[in-house]
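User: I'm putting together notes for a lab meeting next week and I want to include a structural view of one of the chains we've been expressing. I don't have a solved structure, so I'd like a prediction I can at least talk through. The sequence is below, exactly as it appears in our construct file.
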Amino acid sequence: MQMADEIRRLIRVRTQKGAVFKRDGFGKKSQLSDSWRKPRGQHNKQREQKKAKGALPKPGFGSPVAVRGMHPSGFYDVLVFTVKDLEGLNPKTQAIRIAAKIGRRKRALIQEQALSSGLKVLNVRESRSARMPEPEPAKVKAEKPEKKVKKKAKPEKKVKKETPVAGKEKKETAKPKIPKKVKAEPPLKAKPKKETKPKVPKAKADSKAEEKPKRSPKPKAKPAEETKPRQKTALKPATKPKKKTGKEVKDNE
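Assistant: Thanks for the context. Below is the predicted structure for the 253-residue chain, given as structure tokens.
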């Protein structure tokens, strides 16, 4: 127990130091990661150990030798790929970590074997069957009896009682109304049917009489009076004729 308590104390000391070393220029450029790189520049301020530029790794920042490389749980971490890698491990000081590339089926076998042998698994994963709860059997709902709805009775209208007034007698009770006599309509008389005359066949008239008289032909319209044609006037020449010179006159002669 004394050794276990000493290991816990040393692990606590290691975490309290909290030494974090970041490379120079981290945060100024997006392509630079926070992984440590030793500064080698001639004018680098971090190499010259300026206070604002961050600390450099040097003696004094290291963890105690007894707990160096130990998991915070107090076990030494061992990476496992197959079931055979579990052989020869000490469950008191060592714990296993299953590799990330291992499939679901193989991971389940390694995990079951490690837990049965008493080894601690640092990255335990629940199986899919354990995650999914078993479906419960469907319960048959019992049919509920229909509730009888009671109809609410309508409240009776309150009639105001007339208070007797001094000096006035009570009005006489209303007389019952006598129904008016309705005159009985006389019975409808049946209309007499019209007497139909027997059709007399018309005597055939002469074929000449049947012919309609021909209409007299309309008088032809008189032809319009012939109009005298207008005399066409000679158009004047647009340009005056040139006068004949003396040479042209002689030639014509």
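A couple of points you could mention at the meeting. The mean pLDDT is 76. The first strand starts at residue 76 and ends at 80.

User: Perfect, that's what I needed.
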